[in-house]
Design the sequence.
């Protein structure tokens, strides 16, 4: 990693600095060079579009270091509660880390709050109590994607650059974000590369370039980097931690162009564009990688999984959840605390298994904390299950839930949840006003009455919110 240069060399879509006037006006036929150029352009992944729909921030769980966005006199929230201090922000994405939180606004700004011991907030917190307040992270361009790990944060900018701050950790303690050490403010991770996606595990970062190549950096003890041997994974080899903390390209002969990446706490998954095959590496002690044969508790190189027809993957410490292209939800891994959502089963699950309670529901997002899970439906309903002791399930109880439970708190009952992210001991939600999509009409409640407004088939009304005086939804 290095500080980003103040001047970036301009280039056209082909990676060339040539002027269009250098091209001949008339071409009699395509040359091999032109064919190669055409193929070059075609084999570039586009940057993702930033999320369009915005809403308000809700949070639940533990608040010891301000990760919920409330003052230090609030210890916990048992149901999703409106974070009133940022109620005017138009929030399009959230990411919950180990003990810190990030949110992204519709104009590309990133704001952070919570624990900043390792620099994960990406800003100055020398003023007492400033960790508890959401404050802006200064970045050199608008952001389109955010991720939070245990003690680090990363940001994908609209120009394809990736910045990060904080620190990775291993079994010995703080590793640093790069070979210099932890970084309090965001720095560019891989200068000269353009990326289209980023994903964070607890202590590793995975980046997908527009060339379909994958870069990894961070802790490798569980095999999650996919490019470091077991012998070198602890950082105690001749090269020390340099091999871990310098982002490097993942190379393998079994896939040549990756079009999707996903991470769990200690695992990484990649999808090969040509055939949709999913490869995985990392911690496999409960077969959470979904390998055909469990040959090791840690997998250090990419292995072909049994996952097929995959749309998205997420997971916690010891379990993995998958959404397939037909919007069905599946689980694999450790059964304890009900994190799989399969009921009170007797044996661990070593094959991808349908979550029956969600089979008739159109699920658009799955997300996981360490030992808990969440589902978001197309119509804005949120379900949770798994360990409840930190109150991060948002159901008003600390009881473990072995099957998906619908969230019914006041802040989600009358609105649509559009995004969920669960961290170490807390969960973040984005909730938007419900829309009646028929004939372009949105119904809103104002002072207890219903009003509707329609303008050329577009929605222009803004709903008011009903909350109690302390922002609690319990």
Sequence:
């Amino acid at each position: 990693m290095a500080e980003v240069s103040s001047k970036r060399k301009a280039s056209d879509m082909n990676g060339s600095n040539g002027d269009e006037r250098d091209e001949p006006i008339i071409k009699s036929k395509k040359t091999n060079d032109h064919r190669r150029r055409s193929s070059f352009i075609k084999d570039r992944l586009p940057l993702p579009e930033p999320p369009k729909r915005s809403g308000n921030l809700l949070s639940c769980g533990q608040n010891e270091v301000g990760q919920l966005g409330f003052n230090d006199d609030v210890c916990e929230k048992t149901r999703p509660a409106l974070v009133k201090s940022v109620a005017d922000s138009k929030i399009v994405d959230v990411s919950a880390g180990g003990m810190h939180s990030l949110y992204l606004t519709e104009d590309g700004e990133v704001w952070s709050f919570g624990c900043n011991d390792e620099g994960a907030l990406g800003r100055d917190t020398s003023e007492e109590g400033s960790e508890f307040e959401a404050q802006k992270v200064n970045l050199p361009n608008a952001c389109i994607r955010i991720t939070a790990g245990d003690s680090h944060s990363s940001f994908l900018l609209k120009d394809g650059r990736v910045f990060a701050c904080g620190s990775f950790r291993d079994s010995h303690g703080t590793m640093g974000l790069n070979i210099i050490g932890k970084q309090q403010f965001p720095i560019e991770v891989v200068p000269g590369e353009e990326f289209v996606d980023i994903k964070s595990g607890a202590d590793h970062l995975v980046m997908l370039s527009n060339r379909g190549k994958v870069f990894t950096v961070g802790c490798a003890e569980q095999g999650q980097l996919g490019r470091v041997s077991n012998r070198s994974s602890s950082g105690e080899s001749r090269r020390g931690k340099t091999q871990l903390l310098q982002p490097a390209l993942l190379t393998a002969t079994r896939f040549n162009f990756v079009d999707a990446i996903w991470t769990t706490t200690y695992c990484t998954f990649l999808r090969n564009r040509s055939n949709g095959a999913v490869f995985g590496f990392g911690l496999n002690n409960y077969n959470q990688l979904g390998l055909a044969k469990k040959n090791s508790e840690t997998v250090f190189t990419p292995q072909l999984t049994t996952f097929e027809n995959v749309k998205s993957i997420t997971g916690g410490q010891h379990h993995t959840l998958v959404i397939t292209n037909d919007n069905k939800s599946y689980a694999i891994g450790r059964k304890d605390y009900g994190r799989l959502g399969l009921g009170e089963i007797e044996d661990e699950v070593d094959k991808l298994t349908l979550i029956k309670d969600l089979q008739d529901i159109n699920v658009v997002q799955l997300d996981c904390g360490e030992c808990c899970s969440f589902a978001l439906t197309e119509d804005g309903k949120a379900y949770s299950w798994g360990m409840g002791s930190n109150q991060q399930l948002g159901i008003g109880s600390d009881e473990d839930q072995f099957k998906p439970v619908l969230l019914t708190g006041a802040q989600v009952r009358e609105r649509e949840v559009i995004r969920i992210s669960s961290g170490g001991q807390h969960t973040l939600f984005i909730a938007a006003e419900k829309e009646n999509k028929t004939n372009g009409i949105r119904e809103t409640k104002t002072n207890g009455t219903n009003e509707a407004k329609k303008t050329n088939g577009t929605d222009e009304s803004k709903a008011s919110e009903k909350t109690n005086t302390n922002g609690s939804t319990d």
Q: What stands out?
A: The radius of gyration is 23 Å.
